[in-house]
């Protein structure tokens, strides 16, 4: 899961945007692609542009498998969760828009317990459903609810909590990665970032580099995070109680500039996002300046074999370095794609014991959940 605390502020920005391109320096070009031993191959998808409403997706998020292998995800724009068979046949929807029990406003994450019960989070609450998808209870907060990462078999969940505090020049944000076990206050805090967003005419995305936290957790309570930057590659691993057990650092990384093609694609994605959430409504004349540098880490997840998948940000497309729990590199993998690899920059990939999923987060395209299979590279 990726989270940048300035993103919520960026939502208020108009669609009147100027892209600032910065050329590439000869010493900041992408490094040579590592040996790719495995590829993630797209085998099927869920989602249509025209057809049955159950298959028309608005803003799918958090795809995962239930313990028995069914496919589940939330749809932020449809205010519900959906479940499909492993072959992509619709089973049922869960919840609807509203404020009552089992209802949602813009849900953003879903995670299963091993017994088939599940948690679904929206900005206001985290709701528990049993293995039959029936509402059980919910946790609420006096401020916004944490964003769910993983439901833990030992109880509770790992999540990200964001607090907003008005300041003289803007808004102070505090982002906390923590474990909650039923109370409003977290039982364990793993990492926290405090930053201030200054309200300016030009929204400079490079100013939120240090506020970008990449993280994931396994169901047994191991937590991994990286404060993604443009020139450091550091990953921390903690046990559920906060005890560190893993530290990965790659000192060979260096700053890599985005190409003009990558910057144009990123701006197109950004404009599509603003158009989608504002309905093309007019607003203030505000510009956005893209960050010209790539992040070293773009995502991470734990697969069904307790391997840590870390997406390397210095390459176009989707390239992963896969580690075991001791921090040893097992192999490199990438998503197989015959077109321009820049097209995959807006994709998010995740996986579990039943397989892998991909989502194109760009709202320039109609939405799908892609199913992927891991195969040996030729």
Question: Could you characterize the architecture of this molecule?
Answer:
This protein is mainly beta. It has a domain at 24-59 and 209-376. It is 6% helix and 42% strand. It contains two helices and 27 strands. It has helices at 7-10, 260-278, and strands at residues 2-4, 38-46, 60-65, 71-75, 80-84, 90-94, 109-112, 118-121, 125-129, 135-140, 147-151, 157-166, 170-180, 188-198, 202-204, 212-217, 223-227, 234-238, 244-249, 287-289, 297-302, 308-312, 319-323, 329-335, 347-352, 355-360, 369-376. An eight-stranded mixed β-sheet has the order 21-22-23-24-2-27-26-25, with no helix packed on it. The protein has a five-stranded antiparallel β-sheet with strand order 1-16-17-18-19, with no helix packed on it. The protein has a four-stranded antiparallel β-sheet with strand order 3-4-5-6, with no helix packed on it. A hairpin with an 8-residue loop joins strand 26 and strand 27. The radius of gyration is 20 Å and the shape is globular. The two termini are 30 Å apart.
């Amino acid at each position: 899961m990726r989270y940048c605390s300035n993103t919520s502020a960026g939502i208020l920005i108009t669609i009147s945007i100027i892209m600032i391109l910065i050329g590439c320096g000869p010493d900041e070009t992408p490094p040579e692609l590592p040996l790719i031993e495995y590829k993630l191959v797209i085998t099927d998808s869920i989602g249509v542009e025209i057809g049955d409403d159950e298959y028309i997706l608005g803003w799918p998020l958090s795809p995962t498998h239930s313990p028995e292998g069914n496919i589940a995800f939330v749809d932020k724009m449809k205010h519900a969760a959906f479940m499909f068979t492993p072959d992509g046949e619709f089973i049922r929807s869960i919840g609807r828009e509203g404020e009552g029990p089992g209802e949602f406003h813009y849900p953003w994450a879903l995670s299963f317990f091993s017994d088939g019960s599940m948690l679904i989070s929206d900005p206001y609450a985290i709701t528990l459903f049993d293995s039959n998808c029936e509402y059980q209870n919910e946790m609420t907060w006096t401020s916004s609810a944490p964003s769910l990462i993983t439901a833990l078999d030992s109880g509770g969940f790992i999540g990200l909590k964001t607090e907003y505090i008005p300041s003289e020049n803007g808004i102070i944000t505090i982002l906390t990665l923590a474990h909650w076990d039923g109370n409003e206050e977290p039982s364990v805090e793993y990492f926290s970032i405090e930053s201030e967003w200054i309200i300016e005419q030009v929204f400079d995305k490079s100013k939120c580099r240090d506020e970008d936290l990449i993280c994931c957790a396994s169901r047994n309570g191991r937590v991994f995070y990286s404060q993604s930057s443009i020139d450091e590659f550091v990953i921390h691993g903690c046990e559920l109680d906060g005890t560190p057990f893993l530290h990965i650092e790659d000192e060979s990384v260096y700053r890599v500039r985005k190409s003009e093609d990558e910057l144009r694609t990123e701006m197109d994605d950004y404009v599509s996002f603003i158009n989608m959430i504002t309905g093309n409504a007019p607003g203030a004349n505000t510009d956005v300046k893209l960050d010209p540098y790539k992040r070293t880490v773009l995502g991470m997840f734990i697969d069904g074999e307790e391997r840590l998948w870390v997406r390397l940000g210095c390459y176009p497309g989707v390239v992963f370095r896969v580690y075991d729990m001791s921090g040893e590199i097992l192999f490199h993998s990438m998503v197989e794609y015959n077109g321009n690899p820049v097209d995959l920059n807006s994709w998010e990939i995740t996986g579990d014991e039943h397989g892998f999923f991909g989502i194109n987060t760009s709202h320039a395209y109609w939405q799908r959940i892609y199913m992927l299979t891991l195969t040996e590279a030729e």
